[in-house]
Amino acid sequence: MNLKNPLLNINKFIKTFTIDSPAKILSLVMAIFLFMFHNINLLKTKTISSELEIEGEQLIITNVIPESVSVKLRGDENDIANISGSDIIAFIDLSRYTVKGSYHVPIKIIKSGTVLNIDTLEISVEPVDILVNLDSPVIKNLKISPSISGALAAGYDFVSSSVKPDQIQVEGPASLIDTISEIATEPIDVSGRYSDFSLLSNLANPGRFFTLRGDPIVEYRAEIQESSIQQLFSGININAVDLNENFTAKILPETGGITLRGSYAGINAFTPNEKTLVVDCSTITTEGSFELPVTAGGIDSGDAGSGDTKPLEIQAYQPEKVTVEITKRAANG
Asked: Are residues 185 and 144 in contact, defined by beta-carbon separation less than 8 angstroms?
């Protein structure tokens, strides 16, 4: 090489390069293409799930919005290996939607975490937009109703029950607010209860499109007492009382029935006895056939069960009269 004449050297290089120039240019292009293709093949893809956030909401959303979206990452394998859903923030911005209607809102993303330090990363989201139905908010006063589960102890009834407060404001979309007429509490289990009680209960969620505007906890009070029931006892023997020992009596019909009212426990504890239905024969002094009134008795707190139970009340009995046939006893041997 002639170092003393640089210009001569440059000319020589240009001449050398331009000899068979089409072939050399094609080779250079192919080399660049192969280099780029090689680098592209080194890129990897990864799909993650990112929680979808909602910002700028001024109206009420009335359709179901997906909780998350799919985010596709394309980049160097080492770069994308540790990227998680928390590194990509996906959101829709509703701040510019102020009139009710249906809109296709684009999904936007913000890089965070480890993604901020990666320059050569392709990010795409699926779907690209979300259909959002928006409606105007309306506030309505609704009655609070207790939701009761289970059953009281056998033989007990509610005297009264109440919730405090008994109303609450609910905010919801204008097109749906009339579909709810009351707000229920969460189930209140009364199984086996037999005395007055009070407790705190949460209000049940009225639905994803509605918001409770007030304290979601109410006080429930209940008064309970023993049930009062009525029952007919039949097939009870009718007995003659105060009959002269020289006579015997045959009563027709021989049995009757009695209807009692009282507590559940008292009714269940009652057992008829020889005093329940009787005929007074104290005035009979001769043989014959007599029509006599029947009297109901032998019903007291002892028959009702425990000492705390109220006495049973006689509502009716039958027959009210019977035929009594009186005959003399046969003389002893």
From this structure: yes
